[in-house]
Amino acid sequence: MKPNIFFTADHHFGHENIIKFSERPFESMEHMNQELIKRWNERINPGDTVYHLGDFSLGKPDFTKEILDQLNGNIHLIKGNHEGVALTYPKRFASIRDYHELKIDELDNQNGKQKIILFHYAMRTWNGSHRGVWQLYGHSHGTLPDDEMALSFDVGVDCHDFYPVSYEEVKEIMKKKKWTPPFGPRE
Description:
With 187 residues, the chain is of the alpha/beta class. The chain is built from 4 helices and 9 strands; from the N terminus they run E-H-H-E-H-E-E-E-E-E-E-E-H. The protein has one domain: Metallo-dependent phosphatases (Purple Acid Phosphatase, chain A, domain 2), CATH 3.60.21.
């Protein structure tokens, strides 16, 4: 069985102003933090793999460690622009990178793999974008319109009812895109 793989970004734990900036439906920072932890753990089991695409916490180091210790899963951190605090607890992360090219076994694909570019920021083009490689990002908090012609989208919590999204959910979203290979046979 394939391990459960999830993607998420932009939790901004400990950042009270994000409630106002991103119009989050929480009464307070404490309420937001509790709800984000609850929704994470509703989806993610201890053995699952999570790729967090940046901006984990803006709280102090002890606060951030306390949050990280409550979250299920093996967390891989793709650094965002607010990562200073999360990096004070590096042993909690399975890996820490600026950018990652993930390959997942995928029997539906001709070569048996699905390659996914993981980066905090949205890109207009990326390695393999013309060959069906996906790109997942955060940072924009749902403010970028989705490009139905590109195999990319925002996995940030503001776009997914404050839940992480599974690989299977990402796959379903990508199937609905209108992307076609630019160098394939023309009709």
